[in-house]
Amino acid sequence: MALLVIVGQSIGAPVPAPVSHLPAKLQLDVSRLARKVFDNEVQAQIHDQSLWCYRKLKEEGDKEKLFAVCETKDGEIERILEVNGQELNPKQCQAEDQRIQKMLDDPDQMRQQRKKLEEDGKLERDLLKMFPEACRFQYAGMQGNLIKLEFTPDPNFRPSSRVAQVFHHMEGSLLVDGEQKRLAEIEGQLTSPVKFGWGLLGHLDKGGKFLVKQQDMGSGHWELTMLDVEMNGKALLFKTISVREKEIDTDFRQVPEGIRPQEAFELLRREWPLASCPEADCSKAPRVDPN
Questions:
Q1: For the chain, what percent of residues have pLDDT higher than 70?
Q2: Fewer CB within 10 Å, N side or C side of the chain?
Q3: What is the C-alpha separation between 67 and 65, in angstroms, rounded?
């Protein structure tokens, strides 16, 4: 996300003016910058068809899993490499490869996965489109070569969906790439409880927070590198919910756009082999109980 020329000229001084003293014209241009940034994120989701393999370290609750992941146009192939820092043993490796092969052999499973990815993508695009409408932005200085913007709720925003209500209770900051007008980082927290259906359908507690980072992998292809979410609240029927999820993605390698799911699985086994099954195709071994 690049800064507009006039904004760059205004905030390029070594010591920026305090936010409260920024001229109205600069405030307007900061809002335009934010709009351009979020529009670029939406357009990138739609038009960037690049596919990648990478390593994903994911924490959920008290369990940490390391995956090798490969994207295809038909869905993602994820192969577990480690659980809580321990590489899979031969029995676990065999069960994991059999699980993946079973999914690849079942068109319905692949279709369901692709449908969920498409639904998640649409929801993300809808929220990205709403962000500049729902928030007010202020310039907050430079962090290295990135532009920092702080955001607070816009009281004039009228949410059109239950999910969009969260914007009225959220504030935080953005780090913006000044050349590409892309979002390098977004961090936020809930400043008050979020109630759905007057609290009858559930709520999210004050203090919930999130952090998302992405990075240019080359040629303008940006990919998620970190997701850190911590939320608590109540769901329907008074069920307590606790979302604690952290994901760190590394070691990105671009793959051909036409790669098929079976080819992606074979690529994962070659690029990130397990000592317990370094050469053999464990999925073709006799079936075992994964437990």
A1: 80
A2: C
A3: 6
